[in-house]
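To: structure subgroup
Subject: Chain for Friday's discussion

All,

I'm putting the inputs and outputs inline so they're searchable in the archive.
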Amino acid sequence: MAIATEHRLNEIDEMIVHEKMQVALEHQNDAWADGVADGIEPEILVDAALATAMRETVRLYGEEGADELLADLKERLLAGEFSPDRALQ
């Protein structure tokens, strides 16, 4: 019974993380739209968003952890995960 309960808790935790991710993406999309509406070029928004994300990543995980994250992101990028033309299945 404990295994079933633990499995259920893991599913709930995953759902909570997924919901938080969706809300975070909505906030970021809103901030992006506000920046564009204020006349900020997308290239500048990209640079600012990446700089902010990297500073926070280094704060949370240190430089080695940030380097590992960048390596993972590079693999995901080369696999096409971030392509706007990517078809979701």
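Points worth raising on Friday:
The two ends are 34 Å apart (CA to CA).
Residues 38-77 form one domain.

D.
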